[in-house]
Design a protein that fits this description.
Layout (H helix, E strand, L loop, with lengths): L2 E4 L8 H13 L22 H5 L15 H11 L1 E7 L6 H12 L8 E4 L9 E4 L2 H4 L5 E5 L11 E3 L2 H8 L4
Parallel strand pairs: 1-2, 1-4, 2-3, 4-5, 5-6
Protein name: 5'(3')-deoxyribonucleotidase
GO molecular function, one term: 5'-nucleotidase activity
Family: Belongs to the 5'(3')-deoxyribonucleotidase family.
């Protein structure tokens, strides 16, 4: 049985789609997701700097769409492995309670003992970490798995997983 640390934002919760949806609702402009490829997170939108402000807006973390396949694969992983949801939740004041409520809604099979909200993930001790940010994977001592997101498209140094089906194929017994 492996210990698996799974990031929320950009891995379970589709942060990029949330940026796009919120931008369209507020500014009337639909941004194509592929136009964000290779650009730092929160950049690439017509009005510079406004997307970062969404991170401070109540409801942003609470209403993110679920990344397809994550619920089914994480449930299966949870049945075979020791799974922890590890999310940086200290920088944005409302994110802590919103992330917890989001997890309870979309991943009710994850118990409170399996949720770790932290500032920096260098404290995480696991066999695998699935994350979309190099800053979290660079200090990880286990096997890092980079979950594909527009902001990390040009990163080459880590084993990449593009979908939850790929995660399942890699980490679930019988696949």
């Amino acid at each position: 049985m492996a210990r698996i640390a799974i990031d929320m934002d950009g891995v379970m919760a589709d942060t990029t789609q949330q940026y796009i949806d919120w931008y369209a609702a507020r500014y009337g402009v639909q941004v194509d997701k592929t136009s964000l490829n290779g650009k730092p997170e929160t950049t690439g939108f017509p009005l510079d700097g406004v997307v970062r402000q969404f991170l401070y807006t109540p409801g942003f973390f609470r209403t993110k769409p679920v990344i397809p396949g994550s619920q089914e694969v994480i449930k299966a992983l949870n049945e075979q492995h020791e799974v922890y949801i590890v999310s940086a939740a200290m920088e944005f004041p409302q994110s802590l309670s919103e992330k917890l409520a989001w997890l309870q809604d979309h991943f009710p099979f994850i118990g409170w003992q399996q949720i770790v909200f932290c500032g920096h993930k260098r404290i995480v001790d696991a066999d695998y970490m699935i994350d979309d940010h190099v800053k979290n994977l660079s200090t990880f001592k286990g096997e890092p798995l980079l979950f594909t997101a527009p902001h990390n498209m040009n990163v080459q140094e880590y084993k990449r997983v593009n979908t939850w089906e790929e995660v399942g194929a890699l980490l679930l017994a019988g696949n």
